[in-house]
Amino acid sequence: MQNDQWILIREARQEATVGKTVEVRGWVRTRRDSKAGFSFIELNDGSCFGNLQVVAPGELDNYADEIQKLTAGCSVVVEGKIEASPAKGQATELHATAVRVVGWCDGETYPLQKKRHSFEKLRDWAHLRARTNTFGAVARVRNQICDSIHSFFQENDFYYTNTPIITASDCEGAGEMFRVTSLDLNRLAKSGRDVNYELDFFDKPTFLTVSGQLEAETYATALGRVYTFGPTFRAENSNTSRHLAEFWMVEPEAAFFELPDNMRLAEAFLKRVFTDCLQQCGEDMEFFEKRIQPGVIAQLAKVVEQPFTHMSYTEAIEVLEKCDEKFEYPVSWGTDLQAEHERFLTEKHVGAPVILTDYPSSIKPFYMRVSDDGKTVAAMDVLVPGVGEIIGGSQREERLDVLQRRMNEAELDMSEYEWYVDLRRFGTVPHAGFGLGLERAVQYVTGMANIRDVIPFPRTPGNAEF
Description:
With 466 residues, this protein is an alpha+beta fold. It has 13 helices and 16 strands.
């Protein structure tokens, strides 16, 4: 059969293919034999949530020797004709004229048996878990979100910019960074001496990046609008369901943008991403609605349909202090908000997404623009029901003297940031941007409870398998 007759199962399940002679390729999910002398094979190739039912007649040459020995996990190539299916829940089925086994799978030792496995157990089989309904659906939704991210920014005149993974600067200032070195650590430990960085690869301490924002600012002040989208790393010793040591971030940065422009961009961005998921991932979203988090579709639709509410940090603190809700963490002006506070604001007080602005400068990084009151900065956090913060951003400090003062207050090594300060010396402009963690977005769209289950291979304390 010619390759131009090979189609994806996603296409083969559509009524428009009825009557066509095709070839499909995929992995067996189940097989059952009929007393009438034929077998039903459920086949999936990862292109969609649903399976294609293959009807394999007993007259096929390899029926007894191979087809009746197929088990879950076997890979096959099937040729045949698409027919309308008399069964409920499927529009088509494939009547096979040939079934070729490509790869056998030992049904006794194959880990993915018919019984349900916990997500925690499936992390031990991260190399196989994408073959399950749940993780196949997560992978497709993650792909759609990535596609929407690129499409949105390209359509809005942002240039995709690659920022360094290896860096000498700490954008967040938290100090929880993975060190990069080519030194022999065993020899260094035995010597008992201090590290001589002149012998290291880069002649200085270097780390895996926690953010591409600072470097993105350099290109925003040349190209106008840019965005980064790549892996970031944080050496935070946390084992919660919301933390990863390796994760992906999208960070737009735009020159001549102030905080209101930034807020409008963030709202339009989230609405576009969530709209695409609802429209393009129908089957997968129905699965998440039924099996993972009932109400997740309505939750996304609410974000898409409702305008975001705007509230200052000071107003939010007043609401939280006056409400009757019992919080684990007390609130007062000057403290950082926790997820429980953010969720109360979005779910109970407002009932819609909220953009909080004007945070105390004492709890925000040095690069955020200081407001006229001298106490707050032009920061913004986008909060959504069900999660809390999903986007964090700010207008950047473009005034040279103010930036230098803030850096001194943060006790930063100015020599490491001279290039950053130069952006204020040479043609400074107001500019702003934000960051969205891809995995947090995938969690929100799918309703998956643990962030380790929305990235193909999770990296957490004590775990760097695969």
